[in-house]
Design goal:
The longest helix is centred in the first third of the chain and has 22 residues. The protein has 9 helices and 12 strands. It has a domain of 205 residues: 3-Layer(aba) Sandwich (Rossmann fold). The chain is globular and about 55 Å long. Strands 2-1-3-4-5-10 form a 6-stranded parallel beta sheet, sandwiched between helices. Bound molecules: NADP nicotinamide-adenine-dinucleotide phosphate (NAP).
Length: 298
Amino acid sequence: MKDKFPILLTGAGGQVGYEVNRLASERGCSLIALTRQQLDIGDGEAVEQIVSQLHPSLVINAAAYTAVDKAENEVEAAMRVNRQGPANLAASCHNHQIPLIHLSTDYVFDGNKAGAYDENDSVAPTGVYGRSKWEGEEEVRTRLKEHLIIRVSWVFGPHGNNFVKTMLRLAAERDELRVVADQQGCPTCATHIAEALLTLAEKITKGIDDIAWGTYHFCGLPETTWHGFAETIIEEACKIGLLDHVIPIHPITTSDYPTPARRPQNSALDCRKIMNTFDMKFPNWQEGLTTMLKTVMK
Ligand SMILES: NC(=O)c1ccc[n+]([C@@H]2O[C@H](COP(=O)([O-])OP(=O)(O)OC[C@H]3O[C@@H](n4cnc5c(N)ncnc54)[C@H](OP(=O)(O)O)[C@@H]3O)[C@@H](O)[C@H]2O)c1
């Protein structure tokens, strides 16, 4: 393990990538952050060239095609980034004996389980995005032993577009909102994901022999619905003065709000494995939300 070499981060312009880069720089951690414009992970030659040139101690892949509904009509584009991208990274990491942390999603599950999904549950994606992410996971597994695949869910953060920002915008424009109340899941703050990734990175750069490689779930607690999440967003935004009054949020069903891609009804993730294996604390998304709203306010 060559810890004098930097960590290479791909997808640095996204919600999670931005937070990883920001936190790494705050902590004085040596990291080279590349946006899509600087490295297209779908281009295998470009990936190999960068990896061989930089020879990083670790690669963190935060790049992805995340437009869940658009993916239904842009199958090739989604597959290029979400399947071929991680395949390219894993192949280059294998060539140069570099570990890879790759992010994946709760949308690999169909949502029919009654409780939270653990890492042993069977996948059955309901749309193109989920399938492309699952196939990307498999590319990593078959090409590189030294990998951590971290499945996260319902990501929000100060940088980029997400459900929190949509709710804030709509609440400023409308007198009431209607939000889906029959999909259960776990919002996850991008800052908490970034903290977890840097904790894992630190453990990896200390010595790869002790690392329990494999697939892990990481998300915020407690479980909620999109409706519950929306109510908390509006309440918190009012508390800190980002909105001037609470508006009614009416619960609706998935069938009242049809979307091109079918979402899992339950995609709550059981995170005990990552917490126990790497001695981490369960992140609370409400705390992450308050911090994010204060950042957005500045
Ligand atoms: N967002 C969620 O709710 C959610 C939920 C579950 C799991 N995840 C997973 O969490 C990870 C991080 O997601 P996120 O929320 O940070 O996504 P995001 O904000 O959409 O960021 C993804 C980044 O990847 C970049 N990208 C797209 N195609 C690329 C390519 N070919 N090469 C390099 N970079 C490329 C995008 O650039 P452009 O913006 O320029 O296209 C964007 O900066 C992803 O693996 C995602 O699948 C996300």
